[in-house]
Amino acid sequence: MVATPYYIYDTKLLKDTLDAINKAASTIENSHVHYAVKACTNPKVLDIICEAGLGIDCVSGGEIETVINAGFNPNSIMFAGVGKADWEIQTALDNNIFCFVVESIPELEVINEIAGKNNKIAQVCLRINPNVGAHTHANIVTGLSENKFGINMDDMMDVIKKCSDLANIKFMGLHFHIGSQILDMKDFEALCRRINELQDKLEAANIRAEIIDVGGGLGIDYDNPEENPIPDFDSYFSVFRNTLKLRPKQQLHFELGRSVVGQCGRLITKVLYVKKSGPKQFAIVDAGFTDLIRPALYNARHKIINLSNTGDDLETYDVVGPICESSDVFDKDVRLSKTKRGDVLAILSAGAYGEIMASQYNCRKLPQGYTTEDIMTDNK
After folding, report:
1. CB-based contact 2:329 (threshold 8 Å)
2. Which one of 242, 262, 282 terminates a domain?
3. In a domain, 279, yes or no
4. 76 and 107 housed in the same domain
5. For residues 209-235, average pLDDT
6. How much is the pTM?
7. How confident is the prediction for the chain on average, in pLDDT?
8. Could you write out the DSSP letters of every residue in 94-125?
9. 316/217 same-domain check
10. Residues 25, 100: one domain?
11. Distance between CA atoms of residues 17 and 349, nearest Å
């Protein structure tokens, strides 16, 4: 048997999700979907995403190395990130990635310098901060002028001119990303309208962008994951199809992460003790925020179910971990079937920013990640 805590990924759901993405994206001509690999790098998950034909969005040199080792085509890699180290830029150039997403003139100059030493031309998209808000958690909003990401809209033309002045830089287009876990399609409509304004400005200056990259950000249903296991990709892609005014033969790129893998992953944990303290009842489990940090970091809520008892004898628990921190709480006042020591709980919707963000605080072991096929084989 597999020791808890561990992650398990539903490969059928992942494949169904990828099919839904490819079907919805196919309604937009010259569209390209990249997987934002920061969401999950479990090797078997990457294998399935690679087979589905998605490109990749990376934010570190380590991610570039990981996805190339997993079999992804380097020419499908968009390399983003506000602080790229020299060795990461060199790694990207060595592997002939498709495009750098550049967030400042100093970064642009360093890429040009390193590319020049390698006798290469670096293709770049400029990440423009559209000053468009998103209805999501403050820590994952990225498109406001106060955020650290991107180039100010007022500076866009100057930075494009800077690209033309640098011998080893090729300007490819514009990149945007306004945040994560976005469920209100009006946020994406607002982004499209802002992009249309900026495209008009480029056209007036006789500048052509080959690429428009709208980032990602589509959220998942954390409250009802079993009822809504696959996000509404049709509505998401239709926003861009109907609102964005692309120029002829212009490529449209997407960078989806959470919506690709979020619902296919669960964190499985075992109850160590049930403790009563005054009016409170605690289910103390062997997983902690070292295994899933989202509740502690974002006050995120994941649905929790008792796999050992699926009856209607519900009681109220605070589900907490063993870490020596008061923030090591998965959720409070959770209604679970009557729970006892040894019961196995599943924390749902944990495929994105779960296993990948695990740590070894308190000298704990990292959780292992398995697929449904692994577990079925182990139990034979």
Report:
1. no
2. 262
3. yes
4. yes
5. 97
6. 0.94
7. 94
8. HTT-SEEEE-SHHHHHHHHHHHHHTT--EEEE
9. no
10. yes
11. 14
Co-location of 216 and 319 in the same domain = no
Distance CA 141, CA 191 (A): 13
Q: Are 185 and 163 in contact (CB under 8 A)?
A: no
Structural domain including 341 reads: 263-378
3-state SS of 126-193? EEEECCCCCCCCHHHECCCCCCCCCEEHHHHHHHHHHHHHCCCEEEEEEECCCECCECCHHHHHHHHH
Q: What tokens does 22 get?
A: 């490819």
pLDDT at 133: 64
Q: Which of 207, 240, 262 is the last residue of a domain?
A: 262
Same domain, yes or no: 114 and 175: yes
The answer to whether 121 and 169 have CB atoms below 8 angstroms apart is yes
Helices and strands counted in the chain (H then E): 11, 17
Residues 327 and 209 in one domain: no
Rounded CA separation 125/135 (Å): 26
User: Total structural domains in the chain?
Assistant: 2
Sole residue written with tokens 């469920």: 183
**C-alpha dihedral (234, 237, 239, 240), degrees to nearest 10:** -160
Of 66, 103, 112, the closest CA to residue 84 belongs to 103
317 token code pair: 């628990």
**Spatial CB neighbours of 373, under 8 Å, sequence gap ≥ 6:** 11
Distances in Å between the Cα of 274 and the Cα atoms of 115, 285, 323, 337, 338 are 59, 9, 16, 13, 10
Distance CA 372, CA 267 (A): 13
Of 164, 274, 258, 254, the residue nearest 211 (C-alpha): 254
| pLDDT digit string, tens, across residues 122-167 | 999 999 998 886 654 454 444 445 555 789 999 999 999 999 999 9
Q: Is residue 4 part of a domain?
A: no
Cis status, amide bond into 248, omega within 30 of 0: no
